[in-house]
Amino acid sequence: MVPTDSSTAPAALVVGEPAPAFDLPAAGGGRVSLASFAGKPLVVYFFPKADTQGCTREALAFSALKPAFDRAGVAVIGVSADPISRQDKFKAKHDLAVALGSDETRAMVEAYGVWVEKSLYGKTSMGIERATVLIGPDGRVARVWRKVKVDGHADQVLAAATAL
Fold it and tell me: How does it assemble (predicted)?
């Protein structure tokens, strides 16, 4: 298990504790759920809004590394609160290789502690913090990254996931 320090873990998540269950509609049809990945390591990356500059770069980075994640036996899904129709367009437009889940109810992002108050140009609002959670094959939180910077992040996550 790869540790994390308390400054990088959302209050709702504790390394070593069970990851909160989820079941979301997936871009392209079907669903993604924690239960469907039982026994397999899982990377869940949370992104604020589909088809924006940073979110597109992040999705493309994870998609480019999907073959390496597959070789390591690690599944990857991206989650935002965008409607499934927007996720479908985002996935198709950029030919994304990773699964995308739509959490319009915000139940998952709240359970994972990534629905936070944000400030932009002096205005505060609620939104999804760019964060990533690595869940071990036992369904427990193995590592958490908060306030993610996109450049190089997917590579860091791959390294941590393959070390499980």
Answer: Monomer.
